[in-house]
Design goal:
- By secondary structure, the chain is of the alpha/beta class.
- The chain has ten helices and twelve strands.
- The strands form three sheets. Strands 3, 4, 5, 6, 7, 10, 11 and 12 form an eight-stranded mixed β-sheet that branches.
- A hairpin with a 2-residue loop joins strand 8 and strand 9.
- Helix 1 packs parallel to helix 5 and helix 7 crosses helix 8.
- The longest helix has 23 residues.
- The radius of gyration is 19 Å and the shape is globular.
- The chain starts with a helix and ends in a 6-residue tail after the last strand.
Amino acid sequence: MKSSSIALLFILVSADAFQVSQPHGRPSTNLNGFRNRLKSLLGRGEPVKDKAFDKVVKKNFPGAITNSALTKRTVAALEKKGVSPSNTLLATSLCCDELARVLEDDFNQIYGNNFNLGGLSGFPFAGNTGFGAMAAHVPDDGFCLLVHGPHVGISQGGVIGKVERSGIELVDNCCGSAIAASNYLQGITSGGASINANIQSFTDFQQGAVQELILPHGKRLSDANDRMKELPYALYDSQDVLVREIIHDGSSSIKKGLALLGGIQINTGPDSDDYFHPLRFDFYDENGNVVENLLPKLK
């Protein structure tokens, strides 16, 4: 299983700085102690486990950074906005796949338990109702960090859309939902299938929605040099529209502020670092207005 540098950080930090007795699931934090230890421990960084594989990932996904680098830079950027573990609720919209939990767990170690807004392929299926419920759980005069995005696998052999999984000999598809939606779309654009109107089939409602939400990207994927590489970015573009619309509709429920971190999760085998390609990092004020683009802070 993958190890987490953030988990190690929390093991090393002394018990007087963190206490986990609060009912809402977020650690009660001595902020000065947290700040000093975080800068000291995270500031050391962590070398990638496999430099050759790191080059393969970054060649295929320029702009990708390891999860450990992402969490370090996110915390540093948000701390300057007054965002801390004691006043922040983490919300995520990530795929149901267990591999998507790696990134979620890394942020959980910092901000505590997350409110889940996502479903298949990372789409925010909790919608406006889920966002409203989540916003009500944000600490008074506090913040929300919302992390979202689709995910894609890359195998040790550099095959995009495939990944090694613990205990499974087969090099498996990743993301299965995204690939199934892509195959559905390819069948339509090639003239070999008709559009499925059964989106209201509640036994597979989410997948039906994913297939409809990818339809606008048919030509884009058909024209792509590498369909599997382009697929998560097409999905992200649809998700980005939905997430920002949900935030807009629920802007009156934002308390002190909201940080929106969106991008592509890049899952790797059990013995490799996972990566994230950040594509949006916006900071909203209490009125729901984007007041700062924090994306350069992650570069």
